[in-house]
TrEMBL record:
Gene3D superfamilies: TspO/MBR protein (1.20.1260.100). It comes from Stieleria marina. The chain crosses the membrane at residues 12-28, 48-67, 79-99, 105-124, 145-162, 174-192, 199-217, 223-242. Signal peptide: none annotated. This is Uncharacterized protein.
Length: 258
Protein backbone atom coordinates (compact mmCIF):
# COMPACT_ATOMS: atom_id res chain seq x y z
CA UNK A 1 0.00 0.00 0.00
CA UNK A 2 1.48 3.33 -1.07
CA UNK A 3 1.26 6.30 1.24
CA UNK A 4 -1.19 8.77 -0.41
CA UNK A 5 0.61 11.53 -2.26
CA UNK A 6 -1.38 14.25 -0.51
CA UNK A 7 -0.17 12.95 2.88
CA UNK A 8 3.44 13.04 1.71
CA UNK A 9 3.06 16.57 0.37
CA UNK A 10 1.21 17.69 3.49
CA UNK A 11 3.95 16.30 5.74
CA UNK A 12 6.63 18.23 3.87
CA UNK A 13 4.57 21.43 3.75
CA UNK A 14 3.83 21.27 7.47
CA UNK A 15 7.46 20.77 8.50
CA UNK A 16 8.66 23.49 6.17
CA UNK A 17 6.14 25.79 7.83
CA UNK A 18 6.94 24.73 11.42
CA UNK A 19 10.37 26.44 11.69
CA UNK A 20 9.11 29.51 9.83
CA UNK A 21 6.31 29.99 12.36
CA UNK A 22 8.43 29.14 15.41
CA UNK A 23 11.42 31.28 14.45
CA UNK A 24 9.17 34.01 13.08
CA UNK A 25 7.30 34.46 16.36
CA UNK A 26 8.95 37.87 16.85
CA UNK A 27 6.91 39.19 13.93
CA UNK A 28 3.69 38.66 15.88
CA UNK A 29 2.32 41.27 18.31
CA UNK A 30 4.07 40.66 21.62
CA UNK A 31 6.27 38.01 20.06
CA UNK A 32 9.41 39.43 21.64
CA UNK A 33 7.96 38.56 25.05
CA UNK A 34 6.79 35.04 24.27
CA UNK A 35 7.87 33.54 27.60
CA UNK A 36 8.57 36.73 29.54
CA UNK A 37 5.72 36.21 32.01
CA UNK A 38 6.24 32.48 32.52
CA UNK A 39 6.74 31.55 36.17
CA UNK A 40 9.62 29.29 37.15
CA UNK A 41 9.21 25.61 38.02
CA UNK A 42 11.50 23.00 39.52
CA UNK A 43 11.85 21.17 36.23
CA UNK A 44 12.84 24.18 34.12
CA UNK A 45 15.78 23.68 31.75
CA UNK A 46 18.56 26.13 30.95
CA UNK A 47 17.79 28.28 27.93
CA UNK A 48 20.65 26.95 25.79
CA UNK A 49 19.01 23.52 25.72
CA UNK A 50 16.23 24.81 23.48
CA UNK A 51 18.73 25.22 20.64
CA UNK A 52 17.98 21.57 19.96
CA UNK A 53 14.84 22.76 18.17
CA UNK A 54 16.98 23.77 15.19
CA UNK A 55 18.30 20.21 14.89
CA UNK A 56 14.84 18.71 15.35
CA UNK A 57 13.32 20.93 12.66
CA UNK A 58 16.16 20.12 10.24
CA UNK A 59 15.83 16.38 10.85
CA UNK A 60 12.05 16.48 10.42
CA UNK A 61 12.43 18.30 7.10
CA UNK A 62 14.96 15.65 6.03
CA UNK A 63 12.55 12.92 7.12
CA UNK A 64 9.72 14.57 5.16
CA UNK A 65 11.88 14.80 2.04
CA UNK A 66 12.77 11.12 2.27
CA UNK A 67 9.09 10.25 2.50
CA UNK A 68 8.52 12.05 -0.82
CA UNK A 69 10.95 9.68 -2.53
CA UNK A 70 9.06 6.53 -1.65
CA UNK A 71 7.17 4.74 -4.37
CA UNK A 72 5.92 2.01 -2.04
CA UNK A 73 5.03 1.98 1.61
CA UNK A 74 3.03 0.21 4.30
CA UNK A 75 -0.12 0.95 6.26
CA UNK A 76 2.03 1.60 9.33
CA UNK A 77 4.17 4.18 7.54
CA UNK A 78 1.01 5.90 6.28
CA UNK A 79 -0.34 6.05 9.84
CA UNK A 80 3.00 7.38 11.11
CA UNK A 81 2.94 10.09 8.45
CA UNK A 82 -0.54 11.18 9.52
CA UNK A 83 0.50 11.24 13.18
CA UNK A 84 3.53 13.39 12.40
CA UNK A 85 1.34 15.83 10.47
CA UNK A 86 -0.81 16.22 13.60
CA UNK A 87 2.32 16.83 15.70
CA UNK A 88 3.56 19.45 13.23
CA UNK A 89 0.23 21.27 13.23
CA UNK A 90 0.27 21.23 17.05
CA UNK A 91 3.72 22.84 16.93
CA UNK A 92 2.42 25.59 14.65
CA UNK A 93 -0.56 26.31 16.90
CA UNK A 94 1.62 26.33 20.02
CA UNK A 95 3.19 29.62 18.90
CA UNK A 96 0.01 31.76 19.15
CA UNK A 97 -1.14 29.71 22.15
CA UNK A 98 2.06 30.54 24.03
CA UNK A 99 1.51 34.23 23.29
CA UNK A 100 -2.19 34.72 23.82
CA UNK A 101 -3.70 31.72 25.66
CA UNK A 102 -3.44 30.13 29.10
CA UNK A 103 -0.89 27.59 30.32
CA UNK A 104 -3.72 25.06 30.42
CA UNK A 105 -4.37 25.42 26.70
CA UNK A 106 -0.63 25.22 26.11
CA UNK A 107 -0.49 22.02 28.15
CA UNK A 108 -3.29 20.48 26.07
CA UNK A 109 -1.33 21.35 22.92
CA UNK A 110 1.84 19.75 24.33
CA UNK A 111 -0.08 16.61 25.30
CA UNK A 112 -1.50 16.40 21.76
CA UNK A 113 2.08 16.74 20.50
CA UNK A 114 3.21 13.90 22.74
CA UNK A 115 0.36 11.52 21.90
CA UNK A 116 0.85 12.08 18.16
CA UNK A 117 4.61 11.51 18.39
CA UNK A 118 4.24 8.36 20.48
CA UNK A 119 1.78 7.05 17.89
CA UNK A 120 4.23 7.91 15.10
CA UNK A 121 7.06 5.99 16.77
CA UNK A 122 4.81 2.98 17.38
CA UNK A 123 3.77 2.91 13.73
CA UNK A 124 7.36 3.38 12.52
CA UNK A 125 8.39 0.37 14.59
CA UNK A 126 5.56 -1.67 13.11
CA UNK A 127 6.72 -0.60 9.67
CA UNK A 128 10.21 -1.91 10.44
CA UNK A 129 8.80 -5.27 11.53
CA UNK A 130 6.47 -5.60 8.55
CA UNK A 131 8.98 -5.09 5.73
CA UNK A 132 11.86 -7.04 4.31
CA UNK A 133 13.12 -5.66 0.97
CA UNK A 134 15.96 -3.12 1.12
CA UNK A 135 15.31 -0.10 -1.09
CA UNK A 136 17.17 3.09 -0.25
CA UNK A 137 18.26 4.96 2.85
CA UNK A 138 16.10 5.71 5.90
CA UNK A 139 16.25 7.64 9.14
CA UNK A 140 14.08 7.90 12.22
CA UNK A 141 16.37 10.33 14.03
CA UNK A 142 13.97 13.27 13.59
CA UNK A 143 10.81 11.67 15.02
CA UNK A 144 12.75 10.05 17.88
CA UNK A 145 14.47 13.30 18.86
CA UNK A 146 11.21 15.23 18.49
CA UNK A 147 9.36 12.79 20.76
CA UNK A 148 12.16 12.87 23.34
CA UNK A 149 12.19 16.65 23.56
CA UNK A 150 8.40 16.92 23.76
CA UNK A 151 8.45 14.29 26.52
CA UNK A 152 10.76 16.56 28.53
CA UNK A 153 8.70 19.65 27.63
CA UNK A 154 5.59 17.91 28.97
CA UNK A 155 7.13 17.96 32.47
CA UNK A 156 7.58 21.73 32.34
CA UNK A 157 4.17 22.35 30.78
CA UNK A 158 2.45 20.17 33.38
CA UNK A 159 4.12 22.07 36.22
CA UNK A 160 3.05 25.40 34.71
CA UNK A 161 -0.51 24.20 34.19
CA UNK A 162 -0.80 23.02 37.80
CA UNK A 163 0.53 26.33 39.11
CA UNK A 164 -1.91 28.26 36.96
CA UNK A 165 -4.80 26.20 38.32
CA UNK A 166 -3.90 26.92 41.93
CA UNK A 167 -2.19 23.67 42.87
CA UNK A 168 0.13 24.72 45.69
CA UNK A 169 2.26 22.34 47.75
CA UNK A 170 5.03 22.74 50.29
CA UNK A 171 8.65 23.11 49.21
CA UNK A 172 9.51 19.59 50.32
CA UNK A 173 6.62 18.04 48.42
CA UNK A 174 7.37 20.12 45.31
CA UNK A 175 10.99 18.97 45.40
CA UNK A 176 9.92 15.36 45.91
CA UNK A 177 7.52 15.52 42.97
CA UNK A 178 10.22 17.03 40.75
CA UNK A 179 12.70 14.31 41.73
CA UNK A 180 10.09 11.63 41.09
CA UNK A 181 9.26 13.09 37.67
CA UNK A 182 12.94 13.18 36.70
CA UNK A 183 13.43 9.60 37.87
CA UNK A 184 10.37 8.53 35.86
CA UNK A 185 11.49 10.16 32.62
CA UNK A 186 14.99 8.71 33.09
CA UNK A 187 13.47 5.25 33.46
CA UNK A 188 11.30 5.72 30.37
CA UNK A 189 14.32 6.91 28.37
CA UNK A 190 16.31 3.86 29.53
CA UNK A 191 13.52 1.53 28.43
CA UNK A 192 13.28 3.31 25.07
CA UNK A 193 17.03 3.00 24.60
CA UNK A 194 16.94 -0.70 25.39
CA UNK A 195 14.05 -0.99 22.93
CA UNK A 196 16.51 0.13 20.24
CA UNK A 197 15.94 3.87 20.29
CA UNK A 198 19.06 5.52 21.77
CA UNK A 199 18.26 8.83 20.06
CA UNK A 200 15.23 9.23 22.32
CA UNK A 201 17.41 8.41 25.31
CA UNK A 202 20.12 10.84 24.22
CA UNK A 203 17.58 13.63 23.85
CA UNK A 204 16.31 13.05 27.39
CA UNK A 205 19.91 13.05 28.66
CA UNK A 206 20.41 16.46 27.02
CA UNK A 207 17.26 17.76 28.73
CA UNK A 208 18.34 16.38 32.12
CA UNK A 209 21.72 18.11 31.88
CA UNK A 210 19.96 21.41 31.13
CA UNK A 211 17.52 20.93 34.01
CA UNK A 212 20.44 20.33 36.36
CA UNK A 213 22.14 23.50 35.17
CA UNK A 214 18.98 25.55 35.73
CA UNK A 215 18.09 24.15 39.15
CA UNK A 216 21.11 25.47 41.05
CA UNK A 217 18.84 26.59 43.90
CA UNK A 218 17.68 23.01 44.49
CA UNK A 219 20.72 20.71 44.87
CA UNK A 220 18.66 17.52 45.22
CA UNK A 221 16.86 18.22 41.94
CA UNK A 222 20.10 19.29 40.25
CA UNK A 223 21.97 16.12 41.19
CA UNK A 224 19.02 13.88 40.41
CA UNK A 225 18.94 15.34 36.91
CA UNK A 226 22.69 15.05 36.43
CA UNK A 227 22.88 11.52 37.80
CA UNK A 228 20.02 10.55 35.49
CA UNK A 229 21.83 12.07 32.52
CA UNK A 230 25.06 10.28 33.46
CA UNK A 231 23.29 6.94 33.88
CA UNK A 232 21.52 7.37 30.55
CA UNK A 233 24.77 8.26 28.80
CA UNK A 234 26.50 5.13 30.12
CA UNK A 235 23.44 3.08 29.19
CA UNK A 236 23.39 4.47 25.64
CA UNK A 237 27.11 3.87 25.11
CA UNK A 238 26.73 0.30 26.38
CA UNK A 239 23.78 -0.26 24.06
CA UNK A 240 25.69 1.08 21.06
CA UNK A 241 28.63 -1.23 21.79
CA UNK A 242 26.41 -4.29 22.14
CA UNK A 243 23.98 -3.54 19.28
CA UNK A 244 24.69 -2.70 15.67
CA UNK A 245 21.22 -1.64 14.54
CA UNK A 246 18.52 0.49 16.11
CA UNK A 247 15.23 2.05 15.05
CA UNK A 248 16.35 5.64 15.34
CA UNK A 249 18.89 5.32 12.52
CA UNK A 250 18.15 2.20 10.54
CA UNK A 251 20.56 1.19 7.79
CA UNK A 252 17.95 1.02 5.06
CA UNK A 253 14.33 1.55 4.17
CA UNK A 254 12.58 -1.77 3.95
CA UNK A 255 9.46 -2.26 1.88
CA UNK A 256 6.94 -5.11 1.78
CA UNK A 257 7.70 -7.98 -0.55
CA UNK A 258 5.49 -8.09 -3.60
Amino acid sequence: MATPLFLKRTLLAVFLLVPIVNFGVFLLPGGDRQFANMVSTRVDAAGYAFSIWGIIFAMMIAFSILVQRLTESSKSLTAATAALIIAGIASIFFVPISLYASQTIGWLDIVLHLVALIAALVFLRRHCHAVSVVNGRWSFVGPSMYCGWISAATLISTALMLQENGVDVSDQIATGIAIGALALITTIASLMTWSRDPVYGGTIAWALIAIGVQQSAFPLIRWTAWLGAAALTVFIITFMILNRSFYAAADALRLPKK
